[in-house]
Amino acid sequence: MGDGMKTQLVAAIHLQEVELEEKPADKQQGSSNNAADETFTVEDAVETIGFGRFHVLLFVIMGSSNIVEAMEIMLLAVVSPEIRCEWRLDDWQVALVSTMVFVGFMVCGVLAGYTADRYGRWKVVFGGFVWSAYFSLLTSFAPSYGWFIFLRSMVGCGVAGVSQGFVLKTEFIPAKYRAFLLPLASIFWMMGSMLIIILGMLVVPTLGWRWMIRLSVTPSVLLIFLFKFIPESARYNVSAGNIQAAVDTLQKIAKMNRVSLPPGRLVEPAVSERGSWRILLSSSFRRTSLLLWYSWFVASFGYYGSVLSSSELLEKNLLCVTDADREHQIKHRHEDGLCYCISFAPSDYYTLLISCLGEVALIPLNICLLNVVGRKMSMTVLQLLAAMLFMMLNICTTMFGFTVLLFLLRSLVSMNFNVVYIYTAEVYPTAARSLGMGFCTSFSRIGGMIAPFIAQVLMSQSVIRALSPFAVACVVCALGNFLLPIETRGRALLVRNTSLQSS
Predict the structure, then answer these.
(1) In angstroms, rounded to a whole number, what is the distance separating the alpha carbons of residues 398 and 404?
(2) H or E element at residue 39
(3) Which pTM was predicted?
């Protein structure tokens, strides 16, 4: 073999070795390119992170916001007899106090939702805490009835911001856990309701209602400092185009839960139209929005109707009981026509406390309904049962029987409010979720505005006529729930407005 042929053979062998070495390198480079091309969404990240230590912290801190909201709303039921006595108020003036709180909530509810969709959920909720605590404290120094109702309406504005915390909490919870965790938030609402009743029982007889309000501000002040541990919603950040902020938030949550984010990079287009009412009335959501607005109206109308009716029946001794004690035999109006001045007896506080327990007693049933029959059917069943209980309050029974009926009624109306909250947070896209919640809460406050005039004014004239509007509204709402076009059970949270079909 000549030297030329040897040289060519060696060159060919060397070329083949080089090709064999380059092929694995090329293959490795291709796989790295594929890894770089992998992407994930916030929904993927939330589901991958799952439930862990961060969600426990989120549940405790954001759930505690329900304590603040419940204390501010339930305070009216406890303080009504005291301000009636101090300023010699008529029935309509006492009812106007509750109405003005809900006026503030209604006006600021839409504004809070719009601001949360445009500028972030965290800012609105934090601002709501500070605002409601400040004006609630000022309420305790109100020199007159006029100042009292004005300051309570300002408190209602703050509570409207605090209520956006439900959206912030929902956007961090994986889909399969929402039906279990969100109903448990009613435990915190019950704690707030019971805390204000206990404060009333311990503080009002000795120090007066003004010191009760001052002490009730304490949880709000504590939460203001704890709220720094809750981040801004990652879903909001991506909708606003702040991808890096969303990634940083998700990485911190994954680190707390001791898991990793999905491989690749977070890719989700920014939503240009955020916080627009047009989304709520688009072809995809028009019927849902209209029906939800009425559902929220009835949810609030029924809930505060049950709370204020029970307070009024106990205060004025209007309930028909066969074993009434001496305290409950006092007539609700003096013969000279002047407004009465009768404070709650210890037994009345006990009855209110027991009824508050009803808000959490049936949580297992609530969770079961949500997971088995879905959100729409749950609202229908709960509304029909609530209508029955409202009418049963007019039945003559023992004091124990009245307490049981009130316990069950509070359970049903509270469960219905939970389901309506969950359904609303799940059905709207991220671009309009807070605004949708804001509109809904504003319509609910219309129900809260009307409820006092029926429960506290009409009740004095006729118990059956006062209870009937609540029952009728619940029945009509139950029928309307069948027309809701979307079932959200097990569905991922939407990012933007898309065409939806009935499920």
Answers:
(1) 10
(2) strand 39-40
(3) 0.70
